[in-house]
From TrEMBL:
Leucine-rich repeat-containing N-terminal plant-type domain span: 22-65
Protein name listed in UniProt: Leucine-rich repeat-containing N-terminal plant-type domain-containing protein
Keyword line: Leucine-rich repeat, Repeat
Superkingdom: Eukaryota
Keyword Repeat tagged: yes
């Protein structure tokens, strides 16, 4: 199941860091050179970034703060980018939105990204990134999409460390394993997609406080406790299909009045 939510629109080089639009522009020009070095043909529109232009806020895929004081967003989704990730995003000290989805980025997420402490939106979906997830520095994230990559390992190294403001998390179609109990501290979380991974053990009992939750195509066992379904249940879309549960979902599920429950390709509505 694909969880539906509206996303925000939107070789080595010398490290640059500063506190002005001019230094932000220099970082972007370094990023452009880095991408052109790794992508010799079929380049994206970042090639249009021009050092002779005095205002990088007018460049394709770039979003600036009010008054064009600093760069706060980069959207290079579907830009024919391959190779490893750029290692100086943290020099853009006001960066809030970063979208590199639908490319062929490979390798691991570099520690530099962990130093982008102002990020609220990160989309690296639909690449071929790998390695364990270590995002503990991104405590301001509200929306995270890492779906359709090759990440592996347990999620405990990032959750609940980055949960303080997190609303949307999509980790589907990777190779994560282990327990998912680490989401207990994610008080603002509403949409969680963990489908098509290798998670196992018992189901996380806090899922009924979300709006949408999918763990389809994993290896969960045991049963779904009746205690999950309380009077203040908010879950609307629940996908538990293609697991190894050993009993039916309890009748208390009917407490969740707006729920559309999807299990083994059968849909039942409770009202």
């Amino acid at each position: 199941m694909v969880i539906h939510y509206k996303l925000f629109e939107f070789a080595a080089f010398a490290a640059v860091s500063g506190n002005s639009l001019d230094t932000d522009k220099e970082v972007l020009l370094n990023l452009k050179s880095f991408l052109e070095e790794q992508n010799r043909v079929n380049r994206g529109r970042y090639t249009e970034w021009n050092e002779r232009s005095s205002n990088p806020c007018e460049w394709y895929g770039i979003l600036c703060s009010n008054g064009e004081a600093r760069i706060i967003g980069i959207d290079l989704s579907d830009s024919n980018i391959s190779g490893e990730m750029f290692n100086n995003f943290s020099a853009l000290t006001h960066l809030q939105h970063l979208d590199l989805s639908t490319n062929t980025l490979n390798g691991v997420i570099l520690d530099d990204l962990n130093r982008c402490h102002n990020l609220v939106y990160l989309n690296l979906s639909h690449n071929i990134l790998r390695g364990e997830l270590m995002l503990t520095g991104l405590t301001g994230l509200e929306k995270l999409d890492l779906s359709t990559n090759r990440f592996h390992g347990e999620v405990k190294f990032s959750f609940p460390a980055i949960c303080h403001k997190l609303v949307v998390a999509n980790l589907s179609m990777n190779n994560f394993w282990g327990s998912i109990d680490y989401f207990d501290g994610c008080w603002n979380l509403q949409y969680l997609d963990l489908s098509s991974n290798n998670f196992s053990g018992n189901i996380w009992t806090g899922f009924a406080m979300l709006i949408e939750f999918s763990v389809a195509e994993n290896y969960f066992t045991g049963s779904v406790p009746a205690s999950c379904f309380m009077e203040n249940c908010t879950v609307q879309i629940l996908d538990l299909s293609e697991n190894k549960f050993q009993s039916e979902v309890p009748g208390e599920i009917s407490i969740c009045k707006n729920l559309c429950w999807i299990l083994e390709n059968r849909i039942r509505n409770f009202s």
